[in-house]
C-alpha cells in the first residue's frame, strides 16, 4: 500500500482540530464529547482517536498552535532594535491578541481552558508552563527598558514584566466577557496610569 503523505496527515489533523474548536466554541468544553468532534469532523472514530486520544489532547493542540505564534511575536517584542518603549510592547502584544478574539481565534477558549485546568493536573501544568514562558518575554522587555533609562535603575524587571504581562489577559478577558474596551481605549487608560503625576 502507498504511504500516506505527511501533507495528507497534517491536513487530516488540522481538519480534526478545526472541528474541535468549532464544537468547543459553540457548546463549551464540558458539553462537547469526543463523539461530537468525530461527527463535526466527518471522520471515523479510529481516524480521530489516532491523532487525539482525548479532549484534553485536542484543547492542548489548539492552544499550542496559537501559543507558538504568540511566543514568536512576544519574543520579537523583547528583542526589537532599538528597544520598544513598554507601551509599544503592550500595543503590539494587544494587536496580536485582537487577531485571536474573533470566531476563528483561540482566545474565547482560554477561559474554558483556565477553568478546566483547576481540575486537571496535566492541563494545569501546560497552562502554568505556557504562561510562565510568555511572561518571560515581558520580563526581558522590562530589563531592556530599565537599561535604556525608561525605568528607574532599581526597578525589578521580574515585577515590572509580570505587571505588564498581566495587562494582556486583563484586556482580552474584558473583551470576551463584556465586548469592551477596544484596544485604543485600553491603551489610553494604561498610558494615563503610567504617566507620572506632576507635583504642585
Q: What does the model show?
A:
The protein is 72% helix and 0% strand. It has helices at residues 6-27, 34-41, 45-51, 55-79, 86-99, 110-117, 121-147, 157-178, 183-194.
Task: Characterize this entry briefly.
The chain is mainly α and 200 residues long. It is 72% helix and 0% strand.
Topology:
Layout: H1 6-27, H2 34-41, H3 45-51, H4 55-79, H5 86-99, H6 110-117, H7 121-147, H8 157-178, H9 183-194
Helix pairs in contact: 1-2, 1-4, 4-5, 4-7, 5-8, 5-9, 6-7, 7-8
Keywords:
single chain, about 200 residues, mainly alpha, about 70% helix, about 0% strand, elongated
Helix content: over 70%
Overall 3D shape: elongated
The whole-number mean of residue pLDDT values reads 88
Calculate the terminal CA-CA distance, rounded to whole Å: 83 Å
Oligomer: single chain
The fraction of residues assigned to DSSP E strands is under 5%
Number of helices: 9
Low-pLDDT runs of 5+ residues are: none
Topology pattern, helix = H, strand = E: HHHHHHHHH
Amino acid at each position: 500500500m502507498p504511504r500516506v503523505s505527511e501533507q495528507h496527515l497534517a491536513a487530516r489533523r488540522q481538519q480534526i482540530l478545526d472541528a474541535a474548536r468549532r464544537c468547543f466554541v459553540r457548546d463549551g468544553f464540558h458539553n462537547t464529547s469526543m463523539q461530537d468532534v468525530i461527527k463535526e469532523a466527518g471522520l471515523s472514530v479510529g481516524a480521530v482517536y489516532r491523532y487525539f486520544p482525548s479532549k484534553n489532547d485536542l484543547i492542548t493542540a489548539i492552544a499550542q498552535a496559537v501559543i507558538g505564534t504568540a511566543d514568536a511575536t512576544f519574543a520579537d517584542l523583547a528583542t526589537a532594535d532599538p528597544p520598544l518603549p513598554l507601551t509599544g510592547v503592550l500595543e503590539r502584544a494587544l494587536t496580536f491578541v485582537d487577531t485571536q478574539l474573533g470566531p476563528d481565534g483561540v482566545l474565547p477558549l482560554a477561559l474554558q481552558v483556565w477553568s478546566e485546568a483547576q481540575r486537571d493536573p496535566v492541563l494545569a501544568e501546560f497552562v502554568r508552563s505556557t504562561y510562565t514562558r510568555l511572561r518571560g518575554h515581558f520580563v526581558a522587555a522590562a530589563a531592556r527598558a530599565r537599561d535604556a533609562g525608561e525605568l528607574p535603575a532599581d526597578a525589578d524587571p521580574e515585577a515590572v514584566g509580570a505587571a505588564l504581562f498581566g495587562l494582556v489577559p486583563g484586556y482580552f478577558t474584558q473583551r470576551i466577557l463584556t465586548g469592551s474596551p477596544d484596544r485604543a481605549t485600553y491603551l489610553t487608560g494604561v498610558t494615563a496610569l503610567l504617566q507620572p503625576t506632576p507635583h504642585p
